[in-house]
Amino acid sequence: MHLLCRLQLASEPASNRARNWSMMYHVCARMQVWPAYGNKKFETLSYLPPLSTDDLLKQVDYLLRNGWIPCLEFSKLGFVYRENSTSPCYYDGRYWTMWKLPMFGCTDATQVYKELQEAIAAYPDAFHRVIGFDNVRQTQCVSFIAYKPPGSE
């Protein structure tokens, strides 16, 4: 039985254990181990089929309505990695390569889509993502994969 299920049962009064044992056993029996190999997932929306153009435009509209600045990033590997980890707070590898500059003043999702198409044409073998940056809080608020290269599924 899964460790969390055992801990849950152990923390209950003895009178409840027998009654809840059957239920906990069936719940815990359905838990699965995450496959560590050959199961690359990314971030928000990566479990869904590729976004249609309309879906992508809706996501960009959402970040624009929230006042976030759209940015496009790309990476051949498609995931964040570290080359150097010499000290705490060393931020190498947290971000992908940025396509041009952040789109300050952008008010239309189709502008972002056009830039995304340019980026894909320039780097068709790379992953491309859209991020929404909040310049007031100085943080990235949304990020999703907008394009996966052929053969990466």
Automatic annotation (TrEMBL):
HAMAP family: RuBisCO_S_bact
UniProt name for this protein: Ribulose bisphosphate carboxylase small subunit, chloroplastic
Family listed: Belongs to the RuBisCO small chain family.
Cellular localization per UniProt: Plastid, Chloroplast
UniProt keyword terms in alphabetical order: Calvin cycle, Carbon dioxide fixation, Chloroplast, Photorespiration, Photosynthesis, Plastid
The organism of origin for this protein: Zea mays (Maize)
Function: RuBisCO catalyzes two reactions: the carboxylation of D-ribulose 1,5-bisphosphate, the primary event in carbon dioxide fixation, as well as the oxidative fragmentation of the pentose substrate. Both reactions occur simultaneously and in competition at the same active site. Although the small subunit is not catalytic it is essential for maximal activity.
InterPro entries in the record: RuBisCO_ssu (IPR024681), RuBisCO_ssu_dom (IPR000894), RuBisCO_ssu_sf (IPR036385)
Gene field: RBCS
Boundaries of every Ribulose bisphosphate carboxylase small subunit domain copy: 41-149
Recorded superkingdom: Eukaryota
Chief location: plastid
Lineage of the organism: Eukaryota, Viridiplantae, Streptophyta, Embryophyta, Tracheophyta
GO biological process: photorespiration; reductive pentose-phosphate cycle
Subunit structure, interactors included: Heterohexadecamer of 8 large and 8 small subunits.
PANTHER family linked: RIBULOSE BISPHOSPHATE CARBOXYLASE SMALL CHAIN 1, CHLOROPLASTIC, RIBULOSE BISPHOSPHATE CARBOXYLASE SMALL SUBUNIT 1A, CHLOROPLASTIC-RELATED
GO MF, one example: ribulose-bisphosphate carboxylase activity
